[in-house]
Amino acid sequence: MSTPEMKDALHDWVDTVDERMLRMMYAMMQADQDQAAPLPEAHQRILDERLAEYERNPQAGSSWQEVRASVEAKL
Predict the structure, then answer these.
(1) Which residue ranges make up each domain of the chain?
(2) Average pLDDT for consecutive 10-residue bins of the chain (75 residues)?
């Protein structure tokens, strides 16, 4: 089946589907659009800064085991 044929079939199907299925398809569409959204420039700058800091000193942070032990000690 060609892409245009699939689109036509989906358009026809959407007109007849029940609400539950329509909500699931809508959620899939929203998730796809959310993933395709570009990262805001300010967020990209923050990530770039954090990566640069890590690359300058990769040993500066704590391991997961150290973080977990610290949190558990405070409980």
Answers:
(1) 3-36, 41-74
(2) 91 90 89 79 95 92 92 94
